[in-house]
Specification:
This protein has 178 residues and is an alpha/beta fold. The chain has a single domain, classed as 3-Layer(aba) Sandwich (Glutaredoxin). 44% of the residues lie in helices and 17% in strands. It has six helices and six strands; from the N terminus they run αβαβαβαβαββα. β3, α4 and β4 form a beta-alpha-beta unit. α3 crosses α6. It is globular.
C-alpha cells in the first residue's frame, strides 16, 4: 500500500514537472484594452436619459481641450463613487472631434472613470444641443441634472466647485418619490 501511494505521489510530481517544462504557447495579454465610448446622436441621448429613468442622473459634457472640464472630471468621478450607494448615476458625454481621439483615450486611461462615457456623433451639433437643453450653445463644462422621473431639473454651464455639485446632488437625491 505504501509503495502504491509513493508511486502515485511520484506520478503526480512527474506530471507537474513535465507540465512546467513543456514549452508554453504565447498567450494574449489578460488585460483588455478599453473601448472607445459609443457614439450617440440626439435620439441616442434621449434614449440614454430614459434608460436611467427611476434613478437620479447627472450627465456631464466634457472635452480634452476644455481646461475646466479637465479639472472637474476627476471630482465628478469621486462624487460618482461617493453617491453611488444612494442611487446616483453619472454619465459622461465627450465632445472631442475625431482628431482628438488619442487625447481622449489618454485622458480616460488616466482618470479611469467609474461611470459610462459616450461621444457625440460628429455632425448635427445644433440638433444635439437643442435636445439636451434648448438654447444651449455647447459651452463647456456643462452638467445636466435629471430627477428620478427623467425630467431635467437643473444644469451647470461653466465650471463649478465640489460644494456646489454636492449641494445639487443632495437636492437631486432628496427630490421626488422614492
Amino acid at each position: 500500500m505504501i509503495g502504491m501511494r509513493s508511486g502515485f505521489v511520484l506520478l503526480c510530481f512527474l506530471a507537474g514537472a513535465s507540465a512546467l517544462a513543456a514549452p508554453q504557447s504565447p498567450q494574449a495579454p489578460k488585460t483588455v484594452a478599453p473601448r472607445d465610448p459609443a457614439l450617440i446622436d440626439a435620439r441616442g441621448y434621449q434614449k440614454l436619459v430614459q434608460q436611467y429613468r427611476g434613478k437620479p442622473l447627472v450627465v456631464t459634457f466634457w472635452a480634452t481641450w476644455c481646461e475646466p472640464c479637465r479639472d472637474e472630471y476627476p471630482m465628478l468621478n469621486e462624487l460618482a463613487k461617493q453617491y453611488a450607494p444612494q442611487g446616483l448615476k453619472v454619465v459622461g458625454v465627450n465632445l472631442d472631434d475625431d482628431g482628438d481621439l488619442i487625447l481622449m483615450r489618454r485622458f480616460m486611461a488616466r482618470y479611469k472613470p467609474i461611470f459610462p462615457n459616450y461621444r457625440r456623433k460628429p455632425g448635427e451639433e445644433e440638433p444635439f444641443r437643442q435636445v439636451v437643453l434648448p438654447g444651449w450653445n455647447g459651452s463647456l463644462p456643462a452638467s445636466f441634472f435629471y430627477s428620478k422621473d427623467g425630467k431635467q431639473v437643473g444644469n451647470f454651464i461653466g465650471e463649478r466647485n465640489r460644494e456646489t455639485y454636492e449641494g445639487a446632488i443632495c437636492s437631486l437625491l432628496n427630490s421626488g418619490p422614492n
